[in-house]
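Exercise: predict the fold of this chain.
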Amino acid sequence: NAYAACAAFRGTLFIPDGTYRYSQQLTWDGSCHVIGQTKDFTILRKTANVTGVQIGSAGPTGGEVVYENFTLDVLSGLSLNTLNGINTLSAERSTLRNILVTGHGGDGINHGAGHRLIMEQVQAVSNGGVGVRINASPKNANVNLLKNIDVRSNTSHGLEITSSDANVLINVIAQNNGGYGIRIADGIGNTGFIYTENNTKYI
């Protein structure tokens, strides 16, 4: 497939505008950058009950990889839809930028391990779980930067941080979520500038 070919050369996979349907989990192991043409018109649409994208840092780049400019959504009317949009596994020094993750039955983005992940201009909207979850046990997802994040209309919390230290939140907006707008359940040294409104639960 296209990613495997790109990974062989440690380069950049460029995805032109269009709608690309897939029924098996996309696995991006940190071997190459993935850049869409535009967020609104480069659409990766899952058509089966699978995790949308699993991101790791197995490649020799050491995880210093950019994923940028695309929408990750779900086929309308999918009968079974319970899994996450994006899972990250040891995605150290990776960047998610200008991405919309929407319509997934689980979390929009679940960051489970890896330090120094950057999320910038990321939207997690109308997902069935948490919009963005940073959750590592034991603690292994620290010192991450979340900048210009929009978590909105998710069934559970907008942003949840558990067992993670020293994360920096800059202009994180959480509105109309079914749980807390922003929930920090565990961790020390988490700081930021946030705005919450019209969430079901409040701090």
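Check your answer against the key: Helices lie at 2-9.
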